[in-house]
Amino acid sequence: MTNLYEEAYDRSINDPDGFWGEAAEDCHWYKKWDKVLDDTNKPFYRWFTGGMVNTCYNAVDLHVDQGRGHQTALIYDSPVTDTIKKYTYAQLKDETAAFAGVLAGQGVAKGDRVLIYMPMIPEAVIAMLGCARIGAVHSVVFGGFAANELATRINDAKPKVIVSASCGIEVKRIIAYKPLLDGAIDMANAKPEKCIILQRPMEKASMIDGRDLDWQEAVAAAEPHDCVPVAATDPLYILYTSGTTGEPKGVVRDNGSHMVALKWTMGAVYNVAPGDVYWAASDVGWVVGHSYIVYGPLFKGCTTIVFEGKPVGTPDAGAFWRVISQHKVKAMFTAPTAFRAIKREDPRGDLIRDYDLSAFKALFLAGERLDPDTLRWAENKLGVPVIDHWWQTETGWAIAANCLGLHKFPVKEGSPTKPAPGWNLQVLDPETTAPVKAGDIGALVVKLPLPPGALPTLWQNDKRYLESYLDEYPGFYKTADAGFIDEEGYAFVMTRTDDIINVAGHRLSTGAMEEILADHPEVAECAVLGVEDQLKGQVPVGFLVLNAGVDRDPDEIIAETIKMVRDRIGPVAAFKTATVVKRLPKTRSGKILRGTIQKIADNKEHKVPATIDDPAILEEMSDALMKIGYGKARSKS
Ligand code: COA
Ligand code: AMP
Predict the structure, then answer these.
(1) How far is the CA of 613 from the centre of ligand 2 (A)?
(2) In a domain, 372, yes or no
(3) What is the rounded CA–CA span in Å between residue 599 and residue 631?
(4) What's the chain's average pLDDT?
(5) What is the span of the domain harbouring residue 161?
(6) Can you say how many angstroms the Cα of residue 562 is from the centroid of all Cα atoms in its chain?
(7) CB under 8 Å to 210, separation ≥6 — which residues?
(8) Residues within 6 Å of ligand 2 by CB
């Protein structure tokens, strides 16, 4: 007998038109689609062509029109400002319509880009929805990025307007956003016409006459704006993510398929219904924030939580339990690193006992590998299913999950369970591109077409989309993760096949860091690797080879390179450790032996590669790593 998951999965692959067409009936359309899956321009597949929709209508107004305007749509819970503020769907509609009016008043129209650089406050959500309301394309940039990263995104997206706030708050530290924004705009070639700045009481931003508008004043003077119908295939947002160079990739999401897929996942994957409280403890600057703080829960008519705090330190490791119990959260989503942080401070989970978690039904984790210790700890302490699921900025929702709303499979440690409906996941041999047998490791790829909600392309860069994702395995999307599928169909995600590392659930490119280190005038050559870290999963470590004749204190140079990465990428890079080495281990053809260095750093068994030009370098490397606390040194501690 098949279960609901198997039925859904088979139908999604064999009859995608029927499967997703049915899911789309759950959404509001001004005009229904001509085609569910449009494959007339392969490999650029499109969904729901001919359909007309509005994302903001589906996220907000629809619930008001259906009589649930009084229900809480959003709870702003901010331990760092000691605030709890609730918005009903009706209030969220009014706030959003007013902000859409502000944007329209500044000449922002369908297709124009609006960049949003904001902390975790409700206005960030209102700004996103305000864009969607008038068909403008938002591009949210995470607050932990530095001015230079912001400038790169401004240059690529060319926003007409930028929306920001005077500051963010990192536990107790005020981070002034406006100087970063002004610096970024100075650096960028593409200048916005206007900036709309929310002045927060704890930090007043200085405004530039003629360019900067005060959020409150602008909203007070605005005419509310109604929802504008857009094509299902029109872009809703651009979200930049690390690529293999310093140039981030602009992942595009469309309006129609995104709405259909996310609304469907709320029931099928997360098992929540309208009226349930759903909390993603992430940041609106990441894809998890886009999909599961803002759009998914609101499409479904749930209550979402905007949490301006941390798992620890705001004020303690009981913060998550306090939020769950106070707001009666049914399902929560965060990154394993958050749980590692809590476990480190409260290993016995004593603080959990202070709260009533009876409404809490499931914990979902993603963003990095879920280590078995954290999985078991969370299962034991919380007594609810702990669901690992695997996804990427590009995919917008889970490629593999234990779909609680369809069928709960037994959990296997290290596996995000089975491919979610819509994802024809396969494992190919990277050399021959042929499928491998069950249990063998290879490249994790998805047979085209990708399901609704996944990226249709990169922003104004079809060529890079093809090169990055489709060219290597024709007919498949390359996830750039390696792993295997076992005999029972469980997927296992082992490692990235490119230079991307995951630091505290944040995606970073070591290549981008190397580009910065190489810019230091006294650095001849360098490598950055992600080494294992008990809290953050991975952290970047830099290896610097200095120019011949440099006789300055190496620690000074190291400190300068650390500052360069912080200034150019931002604090989120968490680049705090580097070491000077005489040379880097390489193959005879000159390729740096990254895998071998990594194994030494992580204190794992490694073979001396046959192709190495000089095996003695590995000993030098090992010594250098020990000096900074990695490799053998760490195993002793
Ligand atoms: N604005 C400005 N700075 C920010 C920032 C933001 N929005 N977010 C992070 N930073 C800064 C931090 O303050 C820190 O600065 P520091 O080097 O001066 O201490 C730096 O960026 C690195 O941040 P992070 O890697 O997050 O480390 P942390 O020690 O501050 O916190 C955790 C560690 C585990 C508590 C935190 O990463 C966390 O809660 N992660 C789980 C949830 C999550 O966000 N997942 C992402 C996708 S699901
Ligand atoms: P991001 O685009 O920031 O969401 O990062 C995506 C990458 O994070 C994936 O390609 C994986 O390498 C990693 N990742 C995300 N979720 C998981 C998971 N559940 N298990 C293992 N790796 C994961």
Answers:
(1) 34
(2) no
(3) 8
(4) 95
(5) 4-309+389-483
(6) 24
(7) none
(8) 241, 287, 366-370, 388-393, 416, 479, 481, 493, 496, 502, 507
- 202 contact partners, CB below 8 Å, separation of at least 6: 81, 167, 169, 174
**Percentages (nearest 5) of helix, strand, coil residues in the chain:** 35, 25, 40
Per-residue pLDDT tens over the stretch 521-557: 999 999 999 999 999 999 999 999 999 999 999 999 9
Nearest-atom number in ligand 2 for the CA of 502 is: 8
Pocket of ligand 1 (CB under 6 A): 143-144, 168, 170, 175, 281-283, 286, 288, 310-312, 334-335, 337-338, 341, 367, 503-506, 536, 571-572, 574
Taking the CA of residue 480 as reference, the ligand 2 atom at the shortest distance is 10
* Overall number of domains in the chain: 2
pTM over 0.85: yes
| Ligand 2 atom 3: residue of nearest CA | 507
User: pLDDT for 478-489, tens place per residue?
Assistant: 999 999 999 999
State the average pLDDT over residues 176-204: 97
Question: Can you give the CATH number for the domain in which 566 is found?
Answer: 3.30.300.30
The string of DSSP letters for 431-447 reads TT-PBPPTT--EEEEEE
Q: How many angstroms does the Cα of residue 465 sit away from the middle of ligand 2?
A: 19
Range 552-561 burial, b when 16+ CB lie within 10 A, else e = eebeebbebb
Q: 419 CA to middle of ligand 1, Å?
A: 30
Of 430, 448, 483, the residue that ends a domain is: 483
Distance CA 625, CA 32 (A): 60
Three-class SS of residue 277?
strand
Ligand 1 atom closest to Cα of residue 171: 13
Q: 396 and 517, same structural domain? A: no
**pLDDT tens by residue, 13-35:** 999 999 999 999 999 999 999 99
